[in-house]
Amino acid sequence: xxxxxxxxxPALTQSKTPGEIVAGPISQEWAARKSKAVxxxxxxxxxxxxxxxxxxxxxxxxxxxxxxxxSGIAVTSIGNSAPAxxxxxxxxxxxxxxxxxxxxPYSGYVEVAELLNRITPGDFEKRSALFNSGAEGIExxxxxxxxxxxxxxxxxxxxxxxxxxxxxMALTAKNQxxxxxxxxxxxxxxxxxxxxxxxxxxxxxxxxxxxxxxxxEKQVGVENLAAILIEPIQGEGxxxxxAEGFLPTLVDWARENGVVFIADEVQTGFxxxxxxxxxxxxxxxxxxxxxxxxxxxxxxxxAVTGRAEIMDSPxxxxxxxxxxxxxxxxAAALASFRTIEDEGLVARAASLGERIVERLRGIQSTxxxxxxxxxxxxxxxxxxxxxxxxxxxxxxxKAIASYAHRNGVILLTCGTYGNIIRLLPPLVIDEAxxxxxxxxxxxxxxxx
Length: 448
Ligand code: PLZ
Description:
By secondary structure, the chain is of the alpha/beta class. The protein has helices at 25-37, 71-74, 83-95, 107-119, 134-149, 166-171, 205-219, 246-256, 308-311, 327-342, 345-364, 394-406, 431-446, and strands spanning 13-14, 21-22, 50-54, 57-60, 65-68, 126-131, 153-157, 189-192, 225-230, 260-264, 288-291, 302-307, 370-376, 379-384, 409-410, 412-414, 420-423.
């Protein structure tokens, strides 16, 4: 595995403010410069500045090393600076950096489109279009669905996260910090209830879908509805895996009613869940799939892939952008997918996931503050509650994350109620390193 050299720097210590970590002197200097140079609205989870990363380790500028259980929010699934990506990017940088695909096109873009059309679920003719970020991909999927159907309304779900641009803020559920003060939001966005097994009293998947469909039919009306948009496993909203049958029931209903079904696989895509795409776990074939994050080994790239007749429906010139499908990002995407195949990372995600879940369920058996351990593959979460209840405990999640940070583990939280600890290790992480990270998480639980 491609781990950087660990030099060992000044130990991270507890500050006078409980729960905070004190970074080393060089990181502190950068933090001081950040506060004068960068908008205060751009936050950071950790106060340490990165010098190198790889093989599940991030090393900071003071020489401290951290076990990476976040992959830069599910991006560096194949590891940081994966050798195949470094090679491909280097070769591409030397050949040309940018021409704009809309001016003089290049083969990498077409190859990425061919790849996506081949590997995404659904044995039908497909087309793809490339963009820069997950949010931009979602925006374009909605544009395409509206052009195809001639309808305007879009349904997103409770707890959804789709991005921070104007339309995707409207699609995102959570007010703080994503939406507050940033309105007015894009119109014709409606919200439907999700299947959330831990919190909806054991409602079956098909019943939860019928509840959502009833809501949509009464409050929106299919004749107005262009698309329903859903993350097959919700990410920022709390790693919520809907009950079995929820997604297939929604897909069937969408198909019967001429509604475009869009899967947001920005966080779940590219091997993360122990399948190339999370849609595969329930055998659904979305009309459009949006991908980003894990697609290109850390370079910014996003895609919309789907049925040819839908993707071809907007007017020529209707989709595009200066940088969409940048040649360097495309080279990285092709190399990244080769790495997923060559290193068997779909299977690795599944086996890492089993290892994590087994460990966490063991802890749960003696700790009733762990309401649920859930996820698929190497996308696993702990939902933390007040002991023996379902009342969310965000303070505990924060305390555990902070304990992990102080003890050298990059650990992320999420969830509408802020009470979820989520694990997204790089799929190439060494098992011993993963176990060490999980032990620190266990200590964090024991000590808080
Ligand atoms: N759809 C499902 O998870 C990005 C964002 C974190 P961009 N998630 C991490 C933050 O605080 O900004 C995401 C996602 C899903 C869309 C997006 C948006 O992707 O590449 O961040 O635009």
